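Researcher: Good morning. I'm working through a list of sequences from a screen, and I'd like to move beyond sequence-only analysis. For each chain I'm collecting a predicted structure so we can compare shapes side by side. This is the next one on the list. No need for commentary yet; just the structure.
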Amino acid sequence: MNEIIRMTKPQLNKVKALIRCQCCNCVGGNCILLDDGEPCLCPQMLTYSLICKWFRKAVLPDSPALQNEIVLRRGEKLCTVCGRGFVPTSNRAKYCPDCSKAVRRRKEAARVKEKYHTRKKYLVSLVLH
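Model: Good morning. Structure tokens for this chain:
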């Protein structure tokens, strides 16, 4: 997410509305993070580029539909674990390559644990009868 992302006019209008409603650093159209004694207009409301790190990390995730529309390139999905964009290898992919390994290990461990406990209960029932 280091490249500068360009928005269309409708996307910019949605971003401005989201900033006015959700951004805790925007007061009356001014950015309090950039305030050094005199008011400074919020730069994110003035440009078609997605430049504000606070907006990108804290405010934009509150609107997943707008985030998908702006941040994701064509054919990308968001990872359900870490939230990063990735190009899926199938239409069922939910996780980025890094997270898929960890999720697969976790699910495999849970499956093996359940199988162990089920087998242990079965063996105990055989011994008791």
